[in-house]
Design brief:
The complex is a heterodimer of chains A (about 425) and B (about 450). Chain A is an all-alpha fold and about 425 residues long. Chain A has helices spanning about 10-30, 40-55, 70-80, 80-100, 105-125, 140-165, 170-205, 220-265, 270-285, 290-300, 305-315, 320-325, 330-335, 345-350, 370-390, 395-405, 415-425, and strands spanning about 55-60, 65. Chain B is built from 19 helices and 2 strands. Chain B is elongated. The chains are: A mainly alpha (about 425), B mainly alpha (about 450).
C-alpha cells in the first residue's frame, strides 16, 4: 500500500479524503472551547494513542488495524469528537510520519480518515442521546454501541475503499471480507476503551490525588496506563505471533516442496513455487475465501511431491513403466495424511491430474466433482509447463499458450477457469 | 501422583488434612470478624471466573506438553480482594469442578495444598502491611509493593514445595532437587501473571466500577488468549507438517530410510538421561529430524547415493551438507526459546571433540552438549544400520568402536551414557514400521 505506482482514482481518493480531513480538523480546532479539556487528559490520550498506534495488526482483505481503537472510542465518550480528532491527528502524524516513516500521502490519509470517522461517530453518539463526559451503564449503552459501530464501519470502510481502488477487485466484497475480523478486534479494543472512559470518570482522582479532579495520583496514572496498554499490547502480540507463524509455515512448505523437487530427476527448479503463485492469484481473482486460497497455495508447493516415491515404487516392483507417473498424485496425498490441517490441500494434490471431461486420474472425477483448487492447479501446472518448455522469452508467448489452453477448455480444463487465467495472464 | 502402591501415601493425606484444618480455622476467624453479605455476588463472580480460566488450558510448546493456565492471575486477585480464607474457598470449589475426574486422594491433596499456600501468602502479606480490598477499601497498592511481592513469593514457594515433595516421595528422588525444577518452571510464569491479578484488584476497588470494570478488563485478554491458542495450534501443525515431509524425503531413499527417525530416538534417550531441559530436548528433536536435510540437493544426489567410498572431490561436497542444512533449517524454526539452536546443531553435527571434524573444525569445549549427543547418535545409527558403504554391525561392536574414539571423535560422557542405556535395554535399534505409502500406492494400481 505505498503511494507510488497506485492508480489515478486511488490517488484522487486519497487526496480527497486528505482535504476533507483537513477541513474537519480545522473545524474541530475552531469549535474548541478552551479550558473544557485540560492539558493533563489531552497529554494522556495523545500518549496512549501514540503508543497503541504503533501496534498495527494486519487484517484479512488488506490494510491493517491499529490497537488504538479503544483509546479513540474512550476519547469520543469523555473528551468529545473535536478534541479526540485532534488527538488522532497528532498521534497519527507522530506514529506513522515520524516513527514508521510511511509515505507522506499515506500518513496524511490515515490521519484524515480517523478525523472524519471520529467526527461522524461523535454525531451518531449525540443523536442517540449520549451525553459527553457522562458514561453511564446500562442507560448509555445504546448510544455507546451506536458510536462504536459507526467508528468501526467508517474506519474499515475508508481503508477497504483505498485498498480496493489500489489493487482492483470489487470494493464491496473486500469490505465484507474485512468487516468480520475487524469487528472482533475492534470490539475487544472497545471494551478497553469503555474501561478507560469509566476509570477516567471515576478513578482519575483515585488515591493520593487530593489536589483536584484533573490531577492523577501515581496509582491512578499507573492503573490507567496499565489497563489501557497491557491488554491491547497482549492482543497485538498474539496477532503478530499468529501472522508470523503462518508466514513461517508457508516458508517451510516452500522449502520442503523445493527439496522434494530436487530429488526428482528432470523436474524444473522452482516449478512448485510458480504453480502455487499462479493458482493462488487465480483463486484470489475468483474471490475464494482466504483460508481456501492458502490451502491452494500450499497444495501448489507440494503438488508433485508424490513423484519422489515413483522411482522407489518401480524398484519395489510390479508397476509398469507407463503407469508409474500416474501414481504420484496418490502418493502425494498419502505423504500428507498425517497432517490434519493440510487435508484440503491433500485432496487437491490427489485430484490435480483429473480432467474436466472425467478422463483424468486417479479417480476419473468430472466437472464440479473435482475440487476447485485441483482444477486451478492443473490449469496453472499446464500453463507453466508449456511456458517453460517454450523456446526463449517470446513476448507473444502468453497469447499463444492461452490459445492452446482454450482449445482444451471443456475437455481437459474448466472453461470458466481458463477465462480467469486469460484475464490474469 | 497416582501411587504405584495401593494405599494413599501418608504425606499426601497429611497435607490434605492439614490444609483443611487451616482452611476451617481461617474461615472461623474470618466469620467472627464479620463478613459483609454484599460480598456473595462478588465471590460468585470470581468463582465463575476461576472455573472459566481453568477449563481451557493452553498447551505451551517446549514445556514437554506442559499446560499453562492463567489461573494464578485470578488466585492472586482473589487473595488481594477477599483475603486467604475466601480465596482458598474459591480455589477449592473450582478444583471440585475442574478435577472432578481425578482420584479423590489427588483432589484432597490439591485442596490442602491450595489452602496452605493461600494461608502462608496471607500471613506474609499482612505482616508487611498488606490489606484486603473487601475489608479495607480502598487499598493504596503503590505503598505496599513489598507486601505484594512477598505474598506472591510465599504462595509460589509453598505451592511448588508441597507438589515437589509429593512427586519426590512418589518417584524416590530428592525433594530439594525437584523443588528447584518445579520452582524454576512455575516462578517466571506466575510472576508474569501476577500483574494481571493486581490490575484486576485495582480495577475492582475503583469507586463506582467494581465487577463490570473487571469484566471489561478481561475481554481483550480473553481475545488475546483465543488468538494465542490458535497460534499454538499452528505450531503443532507446523511440526507435524515438517516431520511428515522430511520423513517422506527419506522414506523413498533406500539408503537413508528411517535414519533420522532412529537418530532422533537415540539422541532423545541420551539427552533425557543427561537431564536436558524440555526446551533443549525439543530443539534436539528438531535437529535430529532435520540434521541431514542439507543432503537433499539435486546435484549432490548421485554423490551421496553412490556405493563405495567417496573420492576426495566427493568428500568436499559431502562436507558442505551441514552448512546447507543449517541454511535450510534456519528458515523453518521460529520458537523463541529454540531460536538458532536447531540450525547451530545441524551445522556442527559432524564436528569432533578433538577439532578434526567438519565444516569448521571446532573443538569439544566450544561444542554444545546437544551437538555431542547428536554426533554420537548419528554415528551409532550409521554403524548399526544398513548403509551404502558399511555393513550392519552388532550394537556391541558399535559401542566398542564409539568407546575407542571417545575423547578424539566423541564426547566420553555421552558415549558412556549411550552404553549404559544400551546395557539397561533402553535403546531399541529395530526400525520403525515402514512407510505405508509403498504398499497402498501399489495396491491401488492393481484395481
Amino acid at each position: 500500500m505505498t503511494g507510488r505506482g497506485s492508480s489515478i482514482p486511488a490517488r484522487l481518493y486519497l487526496i480527497l479524503v486528505l482535504l476533507l480531513g483537513g477541513l474537519g480538523l480545522a473545524w474541530s480546532v475552531w469549535q474548541w472551547r478552551w479550558g473544557e479539556v485540560g492539558a493533563w487528559p489531552l497529554a494522556l490520550f495523545i500518549g496512549l494513542a501514540g503508543v497503541l498506534d504503533l501496534m498495527v495488526v494486519p487484517v484479512a482483505g488488506g490494510g491493517g488495524a491499529a490497537a488504538s481503537f479503544g483509546v479513540y472510542f474512550a476519547g469520543l465518550l469523555v473528551l468529545g469528537p473535536g478534541p479526540t480528532a485532534c488527538v488522532a491527528a497528532v498521534a497519527g502524524l507522530w506514529s506513522e510520519g515520524l516513527v514508521r516513516r510511511t509515505p507522506l500521502l499515506r500518513t496524511g490519509f490515515n490521519a484524515a480518515h480517523s478525523v472524519l470517522s471520529l467526527l461522524a461517530a461523535g454525531q451518531v453518539y449525540r443523536l442517540l442521546g449520549g451525553r459527553l463526559g457522562q458514561v453511564e451503564l446500562p442507560g448509555g449503552l445504546p448510544a455507546m454501541l451506536g458510536a462504536m459501530l459507526a467508528l468501526w464501519l467508517l474506519e474499515t470502510g475508508w481503508v477497504s475503499l483505498a485498498v480496493g481502488l489500489e489493487r482492483g477487485g470489487r470494493v464491496w466484497r473486500r469490505l465484507r471480507g474485512s468487516l468480520g475480523p475487524m469487528l472482533a478486534l475492534d470490539g475487544a479494543l472497545a471494551a478497553v476503551g469503555l474501561l478507560l472512559a469509566l476509570l477516567y470518570q471515576h478513578g482519575w482522582h483515585l488515591l493520593g490525588a487530593g489536589e483536584g479532579p484533573q490531577q492523577p495520583g501515581l496509582q491512578g496514572a499507573l492503573l490507567l496506563g496499565a489497563v489501557t496498554l497491557i491488554p491491547p499490547g497482549l492482543l497485538y502480540y498474539a496477532y503478530r505471533l499468529q501472522g508470523h507463524l503462518s508466514q513461517v509455515y508457508a516458508q517451510s512448505l516452500r522449502t520442503l516442496g523445493a527439496l522434494m523437487e530436487a530429488k526428482v530427476e528432470g523436474s524444473q527448479p522452482g516449478h512448485g513455487e510458480q504453480v502455487a503463485a499462479l493458482a493462488a492469484a487465480m483463486a484470489q481473482a475468483l474471490e475464494l475465501p482466504s483460508g481456501q486460497v492458502d490451502q491452494i497455495r500450499y497444495a501448489g508447493y507440494l503438488h508433485d511431491i508424490g513423484k519422489v516415491g515413483v522411482a522407489t515404487e518401480l524398484e519395489a516392483g510390479g508397476v509398469e513403466g507407463g503407469e508409474r507417473r500416474r501414481l504420484h498424485p496418490e502418493i502425494g496425498e498419502q505423504i500428507l495424511t498425517p497432517v490434519e490441517f493440510l487435508q484440503p490441500a491433500a485432496q487437491m494434490v490427489r485430484a490435480h491430474h483429473e480432467r474436466w471431461d472425467g478422463l483424468g486420474y486417479p479417480d476419473g472425477l468430472r466437472g464440479e466433482q473435482i475440487p476447485v483448487g485441483a482444477r486451478l492447479l492443473s490449469l496453472a501446472d499446464a500453463y507453466l509447463s508449456q511456458a517453460t518448455t517454450a523456446l526463449g522469452p517470446d513476448p507473444t508467448a502468453p497469447d499463444h499458450l492461452l490459445a492452446r489452453l482454450r482449445q482444451a477448455a471443456g475437455s481437459r480444463f474448466d472453461p470458466k477457469l481458463v477465462e480467469t487465467l486469460g484475464r490474469l495472464a | 501422583m497416582s501411587g504405584s502402591s495401593k494405599q494413599p501415601p501418608i504425606y499426601v493425606f497429611a497435607i490434605g488434612a492439614l490444609g483443611w484444618v487451616v482452611l476451617i480455622w481461617l474461615s472461623v476467624a474470618q466469620w467472627r470478624e464479620g463478613v459483609p453479605t454484599s460480598l456473595a455476588w462478588n465471590v460468585g463472580f470470581f468463582l465463575a471466573l476461576s472455573i472459566l480460566v481453568g477449563l481451557q488450558p493452553v498447551r505451551l510448546p517446549g514445556g514437554g506438553g506442559a499446560i499453562t493456565t492463567v489461573g494464578f492471575a485470578v488466585d492472586y486477585a482473589c487473595l488481594l480482594i477477599f483475603g486467604p480464607a475466601a480465596a482458598a474457598w474459591i480455589g477449592v470449589i473450582s478444583f471440585l469442578v475442574l478435577l472432578r475426574r481425578s482420584p479423590w486422594i489427588r483432589q484432597f491433596f490439591n485442596q490442602g495444598q491450595l489452602a496452605l499456600s493461600f494461608a502462608g501468602a496471607g500471613v506474609a502479606y499482612q505482616a508487611l502491611g498488606g490489606q484486603y480490598v473487601a475489608w479495607h477499601r480502598p487499598v493504596p497498592f503503590t505503598k505496599i509493593g513489598l507486601a505484594l511481592l512477598a505474598a506472591m513469593a510465599v504462595y509460589i514457594a509453598i505451592s511448588s514445595l508441597l507438589i515437589a515433595a509429593a512427586m519426590a516421595l512418589h518417584q524416590r528422588r530428592s525433594v530439594l532437587g525437584l523443588w528447584g525444577v518445579s520452582f524454576r518452571w512455575v516462578a517466571p510464569r506466575s510472576m508474569a501473571l501476577a500483574p494481571f491479578g493486581l490490575l484486576m484488584a485495582m480495577v475492582y476497588q475503583t469507586e463506582g466500577l467494581g465487577l463490570l470494570a473487571v469484566a471489561l478488563f478481561l475481554v481483550p485478554l480473553v481475545g488475546a488468549r483465543f488468538v494465542f491458542k490458535g497460534a499454538m495450534e499452528m505450531l503443532d501443525v507446523h511440526r507435524q507438517t515438517v516431520w511428515a515431509l522430511s520423513n517422506a524425503l527419506e522414506a523413498f531413499d533406500p539408503w537413508t530410510r528411517n535414519h533420522s527417525e532412529l537418530v532422533t530416538r537415540y539422541a532423545l534417550s541420551i539427552g533425557r538421561e543427561l537431564g536436558l531441559s524440555e526446551s533443549r530436548l525439543e530443539a534436539l528433536e528438531w535437529a535430529g529430524r532435520l540434521h541431514d536435510i542439507g543432503k537433499c540437493r539435486q546435484d549432490w544426489e548421485p554423490i551421496i547415493r553412490k556405493p563405495g567410498r567417496p573420492s576426495d572431490q566427493e568428500w568436499e561436497v559431502i562436507r558442505q551438507h551441514p552448512i546447507e542444512g543449517s541454511r535450510l533449517t534456519e528458515k523453518m524454526e521460529f520458537l523463541p526459546h529454540t531460536a538458532g539452536m536447531v540450525a547451530n546443531m545441524v551445522k556442527s553435527h559432524h564436528e569432533r571433540v578433538d577439532g578434526s571434524g567438519y565444516p569448521s573444525g571446532e573443538t569439544g569445549d566450544r561444542l554444545s552438549l546437544e551437538v555431542k549427543i547428536l554426533g554420537v547418535a548419528d554415528a551409532f545409527e550409521a554403524m548399526t544400520a544398513r548403509r551404502a558403504y558399511h555393513r550392519q554391525r552388532p550394537p556391541e561392536d558399535a559401542i566398542a568402536e564409539l568407546r575407542r574414539c571417545a575423547g578424539t571423535q566423541f564426547d566420553p560422557q555421552v558415549v558412556e551414557t549411550l552404553a549404559a542405556l544400551w546395557e539397561r535395554g533402553e535403546i531399541q535399534i529395530d526400525e520403525p514400521a515402514g512407510y505405508p505409502i509403498l504398499v497402498t500406492g501399489a495396491r491401488s494400481t492393481n484395481q
